[in-house]
Amino acid sequence: LAINFENITRKLGLEYIIDVPNSDEFNVKVYLDHDMYETIVFNLCSNAIKHTWSGRIRIHLYLEHKNEQKMIVLEVSDTGVGIPKAILPNIFQRFYRVESQSSRSHEGAGIGLAIIKEFVKHHGGDITVTSVVNKGTTFKCWFPIGSKHLPINQICYNNEKNYLINNDQKRSKKQLYLEENLQWIQNYSSSIEDNIINNCNADIDKSDNIISSSSTDPTNNSLNIINKKYQILVVDDNTDMRNYLSDLLREFNVICAHDGQDAIQILSRLDKLPDLILSDIMMPNMNGYKLLDTVRSNIKTQLIPIILLTAKAGEETSIKGYEKGANNYLKKNHFPLKN
């Protein structure tokens, strides 16, 4: 799983170390939910890249005892910007964001680490973090060996048929995280961005029945839209937030875009325009305000309701959005928690 980020880290000039012994060296059985474990690995690796500007990232898998119990440890360490000691106890809280952090992304949702902790706890494990500002951060995920800690009805064995059924979803999840990371190595000049914006209105008027292949929908319903009454376009550059919103809105058709530019491309290819657009504000390539301007300036899309999402909804930010035609604002930390 971790090797998927190798090319990205090389292009960013980072040393990327994967220290995973052969399975014969462990000689133990660990029961894991494949989808949850994949999310854990992708999230921690992506976070390390996001906050590391120079030096190295190391992924290490090894055996260790904790509380007199033999466990397997997934350790992801980096030489990044680090996290202040005073706020370390809060980073696993939902929607808690480290405001002062230097990051490659525009605005974190503050939800990824909370989900990771839930997934690790679901396995009867634990997650710890140590960090020093300007020196780096280390996350450790502890997974118990064997199955005695798990309810019997939760234990199952690898099944080839189930694997084949879920394989497309696994590829989709991997693509989501890789696309988010690839945005950090793409340099769009201001002239290119301006050209994109000027051409967006023309793009919307084009008739095409195929949805953009760059859209990032975790359930692949951007390619196979289920016939539900209402359709919502979610626009956010944060993979975890897109996944979270898609799950909350699962009773609707949800199509996802990773920035404003991607959203415009999707709108130009839809047979039926969405009944609502939920858009983050701070995004690369085209932010929420520019997306709002483009949608409102086109006669075909100008009546679509648009709700702006942000982790920082001050009065000044709200006024700017309303002046540009937003129907409403939502703070990300006001979303309900999932059970």
From TrEMBL:
EC number(s) given by UniProt: 2.7.13.3
Keyword Kinase: yes
InterPro entries named in the record: CheY-like_superfamily (IPR011006), HATPase_C_sf (IPR036890), HATPase_dom (IPR003594), His_kinase_dom (IPR005467), Sig_transdc_His_kin-like_C (IPR004358), Sig_transdc_resp-reg_receiver (IPR001789)
Record key words, sorted: Kinase, Phosphoprotein, Transferase
Reaction catalysed by this enzyme: ATP + protein L-histidine = ADP + protein N-phospho-L-histidine
CDD domains for the chain: REC_OmpR (cd17574)
Modified residues (4-aspartylphosphate): 280
Enzyme superclass (EC): transferase
Listed GO MF terms: phosphorelay sensor kinase activity
Superkingdom per UniProt: Eukaryota
Domain (Response regulatory) ranges: 231-339
Domain Histidine kinase: 1-147
Name the record gives this protein: histidine kinase
